[in-house]
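Input/output pair, single chain:
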Amino acid sequence: MADFLSFRDGDAAQEPAVTVEAFTGQSNATAVRIEPGEDARDLLPHLDRLSLVEVNFPAYGDGRGYSAARILRESGYAGELRAVGDVLVDQIVAMRRCGFDSFHPAKPLDDAAVERALNRYDDVYQKTIDGRQPVWAKRHPEKIYG
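Output:
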């Protein structure tokens, strides 16, 4: 059973994450935790000093964290982006596609189930931050999809 997953090279960040409010009010934090309802865009001026951004998922049906991840990655954030909380195995693929590269679920995930989820589909349908080419772009290679 996996209580932490990382798809990054090297060690996972170990710094304790502070709230967005605490982070923007101090100069030495390198890890922050985004709660539902907080705006990831508040962190954009500080991306160069962040080594870890945790995004809290208090309930599996709360999808606001997906938007936070995509905003950060599309803005150039290259540090560790960790999904924490009510993270389910069937969400891992979508979360990875939005830019999450580590996971700390509230309940451990079955290793075999994670492996099956990550390898279930060869093709994807939406363009996202992970760089995988969508199947519709493969069908029409003469067109450039950016």
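The longest strand covers residues 52-57. The chain has five helices and six strands.
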